[in-house]
Amino acid sequence: MDDFRSLSPAVWRASTVLFDNIADFTSRKERVFDGYTYGVTGTPTTRALEERIAQLEGARFCVIAPSGQAALCQVGLALLSAGDHVLIADSAYGPLRTFARDYLQRFGVQCETYDPSAGAEIAQRIRPQTKLIFMESPGSLTMEMQDIPAIVQAAKAAGVLTVLDNSWASPLGFQGVVAGVDIVVEAASKWFGGHSDLLLGSIATDSRALYEKFRTAQSVLGQAVSPDDCFLALRGLDTFALRYTHQCASALAVAERLARHASVAGVLFPPRPGDRGHARWAASFQGGGSVLSFVPAFQSSAQVHRFFDALKAFQIGASWGGVHSLAAYYPETEQARRNHCQITGGIVRLAIGLEPVEQLAADIEQALGLATLAA
Question: Which of 256, 244, 284, 303 is nearest to 138 (CA)?
Answer without folding.
Answer: 284
